[in-house]
Amino acid sequence: MVSVGRIEPQAMHFAEPLPLTSGKQLNDYTLVYETYGTLNAARDNAVLVCHALNASHHVAGVSPQGDTGWWDNLVGPGKPLDTNRFFVIGINNPGSCFGSTGPTHVNPDPAANGRVYGADFPVVTVEDWVDAQARLIERLGIARLAAVLGGSLGGMQALAWTLRYPERVAHCVAVATAPKLSAQNIAFNEVARRAIVTDPDFHGGHYTEAGTIPKRGLRVARMIGHITYLSDDSMEAKFGRATRSESPVDGARHNYSTQDIEFQVESYLRYQGDKFSEYFDANTYLLITRALDYFDPAHGHDGDLSAAFAIARACRFLVVSFTTDWRFAPQRSREIVKALVDNRAEVSYAEIDAPHGHDAFLLEDPRYHSVMRAYFERVAQGLATRDERRAAPSRPAVPSGDGAPYSAREGSSS
Amino acid sequence: MVSVGRIEPQAMHFAEPLPLTSGKQLNDYTLVYETYGTLNAARDNAVLVCHALNASHHVAGVSPQGDTGWWDNLVGPGKPLDTNRFFVIGINNPGSCFGSTGPTHVNPDPAANGRVYGADFPVVTVEDWVDAQARLIERLGIARLAAVLGGSLGGMQALAWTLRYPERVAHCVAVATAPKLSAQNIAFNEVARRAIVTDPDFHGGHYTEAGTIPKRGLRVARMIGHITYLSDDSMEAKFGRATRSESPVDGARHNYSTQDIEFQVESYLRYQGDKFSEYFDANTYLLITRALDYFDPAHGHDGDLSAAFAIARACRFLVVSFTTDWRFAPQRSREIVKALVDNRAEVSYAEIDAPHGHDAFLLEDPRYHSVMRAYFERVAQGLATRDERRAAPSRPAVPSGDGAPYSAREGSSS
Questions:
Q1: Residues in chain B within 8 Å Cβ distance of A207
Q2: Where in the cell is it found (chains A, B) (predicted)?
């Protein structure tokens, strides 16, 4: 399978203010996006891909800087989300540090005197992002998405599309996600935020003006996050208790140091933290973890998730979870499936027996990818202007009960 | 049941150097300890209690400062570890910040010119602590402990006693512990250490000289630790997504802030972190987490834990785990039990169905405490000079297969 190749990001400017959940608004903003494949004549083969915490519009192909897209193994010609069939859109959310208007950009408010937003960038929610995405989709002349797709925080956006614009999305593919964060999820986010906010280089979020970068806090935040992305078993398999080969002196196993690296897993985490602190923006980290915290579509329905999804019952869903994901465990996906089944919505559910924890949604697991491929075959079959030759099912589609809820389970959970 | 009452800590000075695993040694040190109950004429009713990361010699009763001991619910007259029968010793390990010689004490090395150790305090291991404890026990005139007991890191010390001094300990009670840290365990320790070490107030560990305290790092370290001590479910039950009652303005659910507290769990964690940073020493935190990292008795036996425990086969063991403990999950305790069974050592195993995660070992769960009570009844029955009236079993002891391995399971794990 080949890549979509070299991709140039595009930018779309919006002069009309975007009202936000918080009551504030975002004025005069730009969204950066990429597209792969071709929008068909009926304009009904568009698939929107929503990104998670540490990602961007650059979903597939190779960027001008030479970086491969974060979901390149899934999106491309002949890949599970086949760009020969679909017009795929990767979009960067407002508040990000990867191109769309965010805290590192100049605050257009005259009172800001040309300074960057920093901590003054307004708090954005999953719903705000979906509203911003909907405007871009509308401008592209797409009345209805063939599908909206996302993993983790991206999966929350995919779900929110079906709640805010149910008539504008045919299929929702929500991978490794949850209907809301647990107390433990929020707790991990909060520790990461405290590490950043209490870094003396943070300066209340106005570090750009101060000429500093709160790298210490970003490093610790990334290290914490990274632990929650991996399963206990995969960390054990990858590192175990292996020590740094250069560590032991005089044939001893350890250097007996409290500050130096002794174990490989420490070296790995420090490297991940260092790398992250070089490119990620601290205010963006705060904003995105807060968007995760706030997401709770059931809240407006007295905590009843089934009531929340009543509006989305005409959409069709694929929900995917991974057995070793302890950040958003399969149980969290089953809550979503239950709410959809309660509404007699058409839902397929796959619980993939994969060892990689939460990160599995980004990896090329054959069972996972075959579920995704089968589902997008089904989405393609629903297109009004489908190419009959291509649409002939070369692989079995995920079986469906003709509109009745269907739950497919891939692999097993013990 | 009553408490052991007001307790005065005692101190014992050691002039002879303590050789350490690292190859260094500890000169001229003091150990602080407390005792509860009375040493009998045969001097065979002593039980040593080993402490975990954030604890001390103050196991039971009320300190001169008015603090209740950390295991007061377990240790006292008529309690599961009954001080009417046993002479219980709580001991503070070297490297601690609670009284025994540690990084906050003056370095006796003349080259240090009367400065505190700080980062120059030598790295200590679980085995070093056990050696220090053994000297104190010897000085108390106790040739053999009726039992050594500990939870978490304390459980590792209890296990290490049976490996280093098998002839000097009759019973070992190891609660909520593991035979070594996993990669994930080490990873969490490392993030906490990085938060401390990269705090600008840390000054390479010589913050006392600099007149600072790395409170930011200590706060983050404690917050991370705290998450791993609680189960996901118990955090959910305790906090869920509850917001601070004073948080919402104008009837809104949230303040929409990236830096202020929105959720109760954030408030709780910040409070725990703040409190901890007021009394705990940063170098001690590094030393104790490193002792956790280094503990690996199987390492000297090519990773074969059964081979490691061959020397301890004459000791008798109670191993206890808790179903929702994800820091040291039941599987980790079962590894210990298997190694003991492989050696035909006498071992009882209880897996307690408790919701509180790792912290359960400190709590007063009726099933947990009944297992502990029954086991210590059995220990009492083995004393040479037992009081026949008291030793008559008023409660059923944990059954034993007359020296054959026995595994008791309390509650169920799914």
A1: none
A2: Cytoplasm
The CA-atom distances, in angstroms, between B52 and each of A292, B31, B173, B174, B289 are 34, 16, 14, 12, 10
**What pLDDT, in 10s, does the model give residues A174-195?**
999 999 999 999 999 999 999 9
DSSP for A241-284, written as a single string: TPBPTT--STT-S----SSS--BHHHHHHHHHHHHHHHH--HHH
Which amino acids of B are annotated catalytic? 152, 325, 358
Query: B394 or B132: which carries more pLDDT confidence?
Result: B132
pTM recorded for the entire structure: 0.92
Task: State the smallest CA–CA distance between residue B68 and chain A in angstroms.
Answer: 28
Chain A residues lying within 8 Å of B220, measured CB to CB = 191, 194-195, 198, 220
Residue A57 annotated among the catalytic residues of the structure: no
| Degrees to nearest 5, angle at CA B384 with B382 and B387 | 85
Distance CA A286, CA A282 (A): 6
Whose CA is closest to B168, among B138, B127, B128, B126?
A: B138
List pLDDT tens digits, range B321-380.
999 999 999 999 999 999 999 999 999 999 999 999 999 999 999 999 999 999 999 999
Which of A117, A127, A184 has the highest number of chain B CBs within 10 A, making it the mutation to test binding with B?
Answer: A184
Q: Which residues of B touch A187 (CB under 8 A)?
A: 223, 227, 235, 265-266, 269
pLDDT at B78: 97
pLDDT score of A414 = 30
Tokens (6 digits) for B121: 């305090």
pLDDT score of A203 more than 50: yes
- DSSP assignment of B272-283 equals HHHHHHHH--HH
Alpha-carbon distance of A127 to B150, in angstroms, equals 50
- Selecting among A51, A57, A356, A358, the annotated active-site residue is A358
pLDDT surpasses 80 at B398: no
Interface with chain A: mutation pick from B184, B243, B247, B299, highest number of A CBs within 10 Å: B184
